[in-house]
Amino acid sequence: MDFELTEEQRIVQRNVHQFMVKEIEPITEQIDREDEFPPGIWEKLGDLGFLGVTVDEKYGGSGFDLLTAVLVIEQMGRTCPALAVSYGAHANLCADNLSRNANEEQKRKYLPGLCSGELVGCLALTEPNAGSDAVSIRTTARKDGDDFLLNGGKMFITNAPVGDVFLTYAKTEPDKKAKGVTAFVVEKNFPGVSVSRKLEKMGNRGSPTGEMVFEDCRVPAGNIVGKLNEGIKVMMGGLDVERAYYGGECLGIAEGAFELGLKYSKEREQFGEVICNFQMIKAKLADMYTEIEAARGLVYRAAVMADKVQRGGKGTEVHKLAAAAILFAAETATRVSNQAVQIHGGYGYMLEFPINRFYRDAKLYEIGAGTSEVRRLVIANEIISKGLEYA
Predict the structure, then answer these.
(1) Which tens digits make up the pLDDT trace of 291-345?
(2) Residue 23, number of CB atoms within 10 A of its CB
(3) pTM of the entire structure?
(4) Is 366 annotated as catalytic?
(5) Which entry of 242, 249, 366, 382 is annotated as an active-site residue?
(6) In the chain, where the domains are located
């Protein structure tokens, strides 16, 4: 099994890393402190071709595979997890989702703007009482002539305060539960949709998160993504892709935290020598490295497999593998960030040292995009019903 990157993938990886180090790293503390991105970042990402990595070139994208997209968000997470989470919501949860499920007219209308940075994309799924149990959403969509009227609320929506295009889920036939959910493209200027408030978070500050309200929001029937009452297919069809993709950001967070811990351990002196020479610090560094490389293998393999399935390949192993990838990568990000703070000692607890930001940012990925508990259930249920499929 060969995970050797192509020369093109290495160029993309290098370009993203260089951009992040040059343009973003100097302002990461400002982003965290002010809880917003300075103007122009989104347009720069569009100019560099990062916003539509997996979108077909005819719609303004780059046409790369999922592994390449994972490399992009990994490099972003390595420097600024907050930018990475907003980027992921736009590029994967919205743009990639539309590229796989929207009709031709919808693709031509929305994808070019999403790829250029003219439009900011969001996924509006989670609600105050519907998180991991996404099918229990209460937002409704009632037919009214050639339109649908959406009513309800969404919570924890990444990019909502700055979003232009929302891939939104609502129940068109509530009595049918999962078989009565429909996906819509909602634009920010549609009457009846609003962002009621921007939410304050302990981590990933700078990535705007908001609560949304729909009050008789009028959405054209032509904005249904997929088919009426078949939104669950849109929702579930991209889960393996999403899990592998966000595993890439977790990997980047772990790498960034490890680099900070290693650097500090080579500079900090105690008892007459740098602390990286202490056996306990060496043990921490070795464990951190080992977990990161194990996570890399899982995430990259899941990305390759999920991409093959999306392109028409067969296989169900990807369901548990993708869940395992983000489960392990997310918990690795938390453990590595925690150990990097420990290596910093008291300075790691100070806001002036960047390691605290990685520590705060990492926790989100054990909660968002399906909790660690739900991921374990997915893995166990797949193993129980289908076995390990080693041969």
Answers:
(1) 999 999 999 999 999 988 877 666 678 889 999 999 999 999 999 999 999 999 9
(2) 17
(3) 0.94
(4) no
(5) 242
(6) 7-119, 123-229, 238-386
